[in-house]
Design a protein that fits this description.
The protein is built from nine helices and 14 strands. The strands form three sheets. Strands 1, 2, 3, 5, 6, 7, 9, 10 and 11 form a nine-stranded mixed sheet that branches. The protein has a three-stranded antiparallel sheet with strand order 4-14-8. The protein has a two-stranded antiparallel ribbon with strand order 12-13. The chain has 327 residues and is α/β, with parallel strands linked by helices. The chain has one domain: Alpha-Beta Complex (2-enoyl-CoA Hydratase, Chain A, domain 1), CATH 3.90.226.10.
């Protein structure tokens, strides 16, 4: 069965290459056993305990990501597994969250935040957030659960708030003579549907939920970031973003520095100055340094505008409630 599958896949790739006008390609296919087990990878040798780096990168959601011939992974599930491994290993003295994310769904961000709080309470191990490219909205929400936050001076930080995405194509359907009709049990059953515009009642219900989620976000920030001056609270929670340096001035982060600095700070907090630095990886992944496997945003040319695609962010965001910075 495996041999037939490999032959079928090789044939498909050959046909695609031929259709594109390429020459005859050569492939070396090596069958390997499949496993979902996370393996510990050493990034920096040491002694006297371990510091575990756990990435929080890309769109935060409770759904699989990936596609054809690409690995699929559920960000919330993977985060949970990695945190559990760090909790169960007595040699792990502390955790660094390597964050580069624009945020994601409300519930996933809240779940990861709660898991960090429970991890700290259950294990007594320090957790430090290290901001990379972006730590916005839901990603910042998650970082509020950490003992300390270290940001690069150029990191994008903030976007504290909630957004609900929907769209309306009813006008387009009318132009082509198409109609959509929903048989529903109540007048609000299809609120937010793309097949009809929002009415005042829909908007009132949606805004009520947005206000609730926003109040929760602000509560998390004020509870965990007491260093934010009261006169600055309205500014930092109005949805705007800040540079890492400005975020420190406002009390949103504790220190400025690179990932190496965050690891050094974590070692001091854990009283393990010479600890080994590790990560948890799927088999066959590369782990040569503390920055290994960090998604690198690629500039994309659209007409005459260069657009930087955020790691894991999608140009199309399904309808729903998000703690998300999606400019």
């Amino acid at each position: 069965m495996r041999f037939l599958t490999v032959r079928w896949l090789s044939g498909l790739i050959f046909l695609c290459a031929a259709a594109a006008g390429c020459g005859t390609p050569s492939f070396l296919v090596t069958p390997v056993s499949n496993t979902n087990k996370l393996e510990e990878v050493t990034l920096k040798e040491g002694k006297g305990g371990k510091i575990a780096i756990i990435p929080v990168e890309g769109m935060i959601s409770n759904a699989k990501e990936g596609g054809f011939l690409q690995p699929t992974e559920n960000p919330l599930s993977l985060f949970t597994q990695q945190l559990d491994l760090a909790a169960s290993d007595s040699d792990v003295k502390a955790v660094v969250l390597r964050i580069s994310s624009p945020g994601g769904t409300v519930s996933s961000a809240d779940a990861m935040y709660e898991q960090i709080l429970r991890f700290r309470k259950r294990t007594g191990k320090p957790v430090v957030a290290a901001f990379q490219e972006v730590a916005a909205s839901g990603a910042y929400y998650i970082a509020c659960g950490c003992d300390r936050i270290v940001a690069q001076p150029t990191s994008v930080v903030g976007s504290i708030g909630v957004i609900f995405y929907t769209f309306n194509i009813s006008g387009t359907l009318n132009k082509i003579g198409a109609q959509s009709e929903a048989l529903k049990s109540g007048p609000l059953k299809d609120m937010g549907s793309p097949f009809r515009p929002l009415n005042s009642e829909d908007r009132a219900v949606m805004q009520g939920m947005i206000d609730e989620y926003y109040a929760r976000f602000v509560g998390v920030v004020t509870e965990n970031r007491p260093g934010i001056p009261s006169q600055s609270l309205k500014t930092v929670t109005d949805g705007r973003v800040f540079s890492g340096r400005h975020a420190k001035d406002l009390g949103l982060v504790d220190d400025l520095g690179l990932l190496e600095d965050a690891v050094r700070t974590t070692k001091k907090m854990a009283k393990a100055p010479h600890a080994e630095v590790i990560m948890y990886k799927r088999p066959y992944g590369y782990g040569g340094s503390i920055y290994a496997s960090a998604p690198v945003p690629q500039p994309q040319q659209a007409s005459n505008v260069t657009q930087l695609t955020l790691p894991g962010a999608s140009h199309f965001v399904p309808s729903g409630f998000y703690y998300l910075w999606n400019p």
